[in-house]
Specification:
With 253 residues, this protein is of the alpha/beta class. The protein is built from eight helices and eleven strands.
């Protein structure tokens, strides 16, 4: 009788140990994703105090990587050190467009998750009808400090369009509301997220035409090339079943 009890206890302990071991991800099953230093709402949103993360790109990434058996670990890397972290092996994945990185051939990119479109946001009381660049001549553009807008570079340099920099999209859109600029060049999703979260409904006119348009993807380290193939397969399913659109809508509508 005593031996049977000991055997049962041993079996329970052994089964529990196996279950616990299965829940622990091995180092090869942990993937490090950059939330950027302060986040980039609505794509990457982080609460450093509560240690929580969300956002469109983060949510898509974690859902797919979870299906592939990976545990996502987030870090907050300043923009100037992102490539350094990739090279040193401290970073595995980051939301990026191919056009925004030097030597994109050094990395593996996922299929596009969404379009990163920079649109014209103008004050509803002083709307800018943007059909061509000619409509912007002589106006004051509020731009993001350090950002480049290739179609407008020539006009900024010539002074045909006055450029005024601000730090961050929220400050840019506020300047338009206060009449300190005629329009702001803001990412479509970022602008709509700010409108939703600052009660700015019916205060802006948003252009249909874009200034720039890039495919927003996940940039992976080269060693994960085979993983990216599987990632893209799941991404295509999420696009077809409407899950990507549902995630985006939840953040900006």
């Amino acid at each position: 009788m005593g031996k049977k009890i000991l055997l049962i206890i041993y079996m329970v302990f052994f089964a529990s140990s196996i279950a616990a071991a299965q829940e622990i991800k091995s180092p090869s099953q942990i993937i490090t994703f950059n939330m950027t230093y302060d986040g980039y709402p609505p794509f990457m949103i982080c609460n450093k105090e509560e240690k929580t993360s969300c956002g469109i790109m983060y949510e898509v990434f974690t859902k797919i990587m979870g299906k592939l058996g990976y545990l996502v670990r987030t870090i907050h890397v300043p923009k100037k050190r992102e490539i350094e972290f990739f090279i040193s092996g401290k970073l595995d994945a980051h939301a990026m467009a191919k056009e925004w990185v030097e030597n994109p051939e050094d990395y593996v990119f996922s299929a596009p998750i969404l379009k990163a479109r920079n649109l014209i946001f103008s004050n509803v009381n002083n709307p800018v009808k943007y059909r061509s660049i000619k409509d912007l001549l002589g106006k004051r553009a509020i731009t993001n400090l350090g950002f480049v807008y290739p179609p407008l570079t020539k006009y900024f340099e010539e002074g045909a369009i006055k450029r005024f920099d601000a730090i961050g999209e929220k400050a840019m859109m506020r300047m338009v509301l206060y009449g300190r600029g005629d329009f702001a060049i803001v990412n479509e999703h970022v602008g709509r997220w700010l409108i939703k979260n600052n009660s700015w409904h019916n205060k802006f006119v948003i252009s249909e035409r874009d200034i720039t348009n890039y495919d927003y993807r996940i940039m992976f380290t080269k060693k994960l090339e085979k993983v990216v193939t599987k990632f893209n397969q799941h991404l295509e399913i999420m696009k077809e079943n409407g899950e990507i659109d549902e995630i985006i809508s939840r953040y900006i509508n």
